[in-house]
Design goal:
transferase; flat; alpha/beta; about 30% helix; 4 domains
Length: about 700
């Protein structure tokens, strides 16, 4: 009833051509620039029990309005139209746009009557919200209200159902977005600037967007995107003027799109900039179900004499003011995802210190803090000597970027509040305090450098709107090399930020133990394994619990030796052919392992059977990966033939023992078998699974 009125062809001819296999000669043609809306009227009680035989009136009036009425549950009785079914009829209107079609369809519904008529009053509401431009000028800024066309919706529908407009977005003077137009306009002269410089930025959310899609949380990503864009303008002293967004997806999901748009609009309102619109693009074949990409573009302005570009006037004895930022952003998420992989938690697990009312995914998706409205007056006061937005960078790099070469900075981590999520990352990732400062912002989203005698005055101005602290000082340059920034007491501050229930489970002495030392690992190869690269890559990551200190091969010239050499790892070739017995060969390996203080052995395609004395000495310290989920057989690491009806396979990382035991299993990674999958393709997939499973087992 809603599609057929838009079809130009004779529907019978289209169906007949389909049956005859000649649809290419009778392709459906559709009315252009037209929108159809259909409202169904049902009997009271439908789809349950309902009364029949109720007279239907007003059909002639609906026809005079130019509407099409499709009869579904009606019949003629004594010359009158009466109800005979649950879905009685539907009223369809075709107009040039959705709002007009909605209004006409609801006028038709209002004209038709039968006792207890039931119909939905929210038809098309979601579509309208997606299409509308959620803009108006605030009373405070212009002294009047701009009401876009879409706000006439209630009037167009005859007030038959309530419609809640989106959050109001204040628009700077000079901004205009015509409903139905293809572009937004901004009159820079009308915005009040004398000698302005335009500043622009474009951003995406990277891995954080993937986390949002996994968690099915789409209400924060719009806020995140606007905040990151606007904060970058702020770093140049610029005020945001207008924002545009672009959403690309495989298949449009109205609820997801609506949640994202509301987040964008709300963030623009908070930033005081116009949301001129967004483009939504369906890209078939590029995105999987539920996947999308979101990017934003913002334009701001700053008076020529107020630009902060290259602001690096910090001197010794100046003071650093830090502003709070609770969330994790930018490239930090690459490390977060790796830490999560190694931990026993998932995005749906309770967040640290949340008492179960907040998930880890919720904590990780906390939007970026937007500083623009509160910081602009401070930045333009002339008191700020250096300024850095560091929410997307590590603490060290973010601050170093705005310090001159002739000075350094010392921060006291006990002077600010570190959110609990950073304690979790520190603990689960087995990171050092230095790695935390290099990788994460640790709760500081922006830093200002001010003169010492003005520090308290500036801090009070900021604290009227933001949580902020005096966090450090500018000092003479560090002569030992390394970073321009040192963070003192970070380990203690991270301990203090841990959730109370974790503190109660840990005694004071254990809380202040030094970071766990990395275990020395040797990898034994024969040239056929594929796991060495994965192990090396894992040990190079922040928070890994191991370091590869030696690679031993029983064959010379194999690729794994070259890979180890390129990674700076010592190698040794111990040719088994040069030894008279297995025990003599193993004893030589044992001496070399002791020479490098090896504590753990990983086998990666090592094709020699280890002797009983060697296995006894290294019991519980030798790991191997087998391409099977089945119970392990002693000395076997070969893929079992696929059994008929088997739906799952995978790999197992286990201890190498003299006797097989279920307790030898450390970690298993199951994989679903795919239809028509050959042994060769399956073997490659299992190798990839081993590369993922081995580092996880090593962490355990």
């Amino acid at each position: 009833q809603v599609i057929l009125p838009l079809l130009k062809n004779d529907f019978y001819e289209v169906i007949q051509a389909t049956i005859d296999g000649k649809l290419c000669s009778c392709m459906p043609a559709w009315s252009e620039n037209s929108t159809a809306v259909c409202v169904v009227m049902a009997s009271p009680g439908y789809p349950g029990d309902y009364t029949k035989g109720m007279e239907v009136t007003g059909l002639l009036q609906a026809k005079e309005l130019g509407l099409q009425v499709f009869h579904g549950g009606t019949t003629l009785k004594d010359g009158r139209v009466v109800t005979s079914g649950g879905r009685v009829l539907s009223v369809t209107a075709v107009e040039e746009d959705l709002v007009k079609a909605l209004g006409e369809a609801n006028r038709g519904v209002a004209a038709i009557h039968f006792k207890g008529a039931t119909f939905r009053k929210d038809i098309g509401r979601r579509g309208v919200r997606l299409l509308q431009h959620s803009l108006y000028v605030s009373k405070e800024m212009l002294g009047h209200i701009f009401t876009p066309r879409i706000y006439c919706l209630g009037e167009a529908l005859g007030c038959l159902f309530p419609f809640k407009p989106p959050p109001a977005v204040p628009v700077p003077p000079g901004c205009r977005s015509e409903a139905g137009g293809l572009a937004g306009f901004f009159d820079l002269k009308a915005s009040g600037y004398g000698d302005p410089i335009l500043v622009s930025q474009t951003k995406g959310l990277g891995p954080k967007l993937q986390v949002a899609q996994v968690c099915k949380r789409h209400d924060t990503v719009g806020q995140d995107l606007v905040a990151l864009c606007v904060n970058d303008l702020l770093a140049q002293g610029a005020e945001p003027l207008f924002f545009l967004g672009r959403l690309a997806c495989g298949k449009l999901d109205a609820e997801v799109t609506e949640a994202i748009q509301e987040g964008l609009a709300e963030a623009c309102r908070a930033a005081g900039c116009a949301f001129l619109g967004r483009e939504v693009t369906e890209v078939t074949g590029l995105f999987s179900a539920g996947e999308y990409d979101l990017s934003g573009f913002v334009v701001g302005a700053v008076e020529r004499g107020q630009m902060l570009l290259g602001l690096q006037r910090a001197e010794e004895e100046d003071v650093l003011i830090g502003l709070a930022s609770p969330g994790i952003h930018g490239r930090d998420f690459g490390t977060v995802r790796k830490i999560l992989l190694m931990s026993s938690l998932h995005y749906s697990s309770p967040a640290p210190g949340s008492c179960g009312d907040k998930t880890l995914g919720d904590a990780l998706l906390t939007p970026a803090k937007m500083f623009s409205p509160s910081l602009l007056p401070v930045l333009r006061s002339g008191h700020v000597k250096a300024f850095a937005i560091i929410a997307e960078e590590g603490l060290l790099e973010g601050i170093s970027r705005v310090l001159p070469e002739h000075v350094s900075a010392v921060l006291d981590a006990l002077s600010w509040k570190i959110p609990e999520i950073f304690w979790w990352l520190y603990k689960e990732g087995n990171l050092s305090a230095e790695e935390m400062a290099q990788t994460f912002h640790c709760g500081i989203g922006a830093v200002l450098v001010v003169q010492e005698d003005l520090a308290q005055h500036v801090l009070k101005d900021i604290q009227r709107h933001e949580e902020a602290w005096l966090i450090g000082k500018v000092v003479a340059p560090c002569r030992t090399g390394g970073s321009h920034v040192q963070v003192e007491n970070l380990e203690e501050a991270l301990q203090l930020s841990s959730p109370q229930h974790l503190l109660s489970d840990t005694n004071t002495e254990s809380q202040h133990q030094p970071r766990r030392r990395k275990v020395n690992v040797a990898v034994l190869v024969s040239g056929t394994g594929t796991n060495l690269s994965a192990l090396i890559g894992y040990t190079k990551e922040p928070g890994s619990c191991a370091q590869v200190v030696l690679v031993i091969s029983n064959k010379s010239g194999v690729e794994e030796l070259r890979n180890a050499a390129r990674a700076g790892i010592p190698t040794r070739v111990i040719d088994h052919k040069l030894y008279g017995s297995r025990s003599e060969f193993d004893s030589t390996i044992d001496r070399v392992l002791q020479e490098f203080s090896v504590e753990l052995i990983c086998l990666s395609g090592f094709m020699r059977i280890l002797s009983s004395p060697f296995l006894q000495k290294w019991k519980g310290k030798i790991l191997n990966a087998s391409p099977s989920l089945l119970p392990l057989k002693a000395g076997s690491a070969q893929q079992e033939p696929l059994q008929p009806g088997l739906k799952v396979t995978g790999c197992t990382v286990h201890f190498v023992l003299e006797d097989s035991s279920p307790r030898a299993v450390i970690h298993q990674e199951p994989m679903a078998l795919r239809a028509e999958e050959g042994q060769e393709v399956l073997s490659e997939r299992v190798k990839e699974a081993e590369g993922r499973a081995f580092p996880v087992a090593l962490q355990l």
